[in-house]
Amino acid sequence: MLTQLRRTTPRPLILACALSLVAAYFAVRYPDIKGTSVGSFVSTLLIASPSAFALFRYLGPRKATLSLLVLSIFGYAIESLGVATGFPYGTFYYGDALGPRLAGIVPLLLPLSYAPLVVGAVAAAWGTRLRLLHVLYATLLLVWMDAVLDPGAASLGFWVWPGGGAYYGVPISNYAGWLLSGAIATTLLLAAGQWSETPRPALLDSATIATSFWTGVVVLSGMVAPALLGALLLVYLLARRSHLRAAK
């Protein structure tokens, strides 16, 4: 299977995943290196770009712009609510590593990191005719992604859980929150974009690169469970990408 994935995965994507592992090394080993905030912005933008371009090619300019706008507004809203009230994720706040924050609450970079995950999950979940099952499938994939991402991000100080949590410092309430927010986000994306044709494989690329980065972070941080989940998720996303490629 791994040999097949290597053959069907474009070399630029393999290179991007490899570079993301290098970036993970520097993020973990040299968190205070000069220019970290600028590097975070540039890397987040580069990671988000492949799926954004693919979304414009898949949906067209109008629907793609509307989709990204809707996801951005929702992302800012749900995260601001979370920081201000503790609902639906639990009590947390963002650290300074992600740069300037909107109204001093949520990082301006949020849509660049959040939207590609939702786009990737919806594309990877493609195949069921029932919209409800599609939303459920994509939501569970988002929770899977977050089970890799959140422990790593917390370890880097990207966001902070003052009360800690049972899962590598992250409370279980966070994942209940992701079930809710993920269901809403995937529903909004499908409604705004009116997805009808088989998704382009490249829609998964940003989520795949992000998974590679966060898997590298948790591996280097010695987090066994997130590392295993990240490795499995990376293989799964590449397999779904291969499936979509064959279906086109």
From TrEMBL:
InterPro entries: CruF-like. Pfam families: Caroten_synth. The chain crosses the membrane at residues 12-28, 40-59, 66-90, 102-123, 135-160, 172-192, 213-239. It comes from the Bacteria. Keywords: Membrane, Transmembrane, Transmembrane helix. This is Carotenoid biosynthesis protein. It comes from uncultured Rubrobacteraceae bacterium.
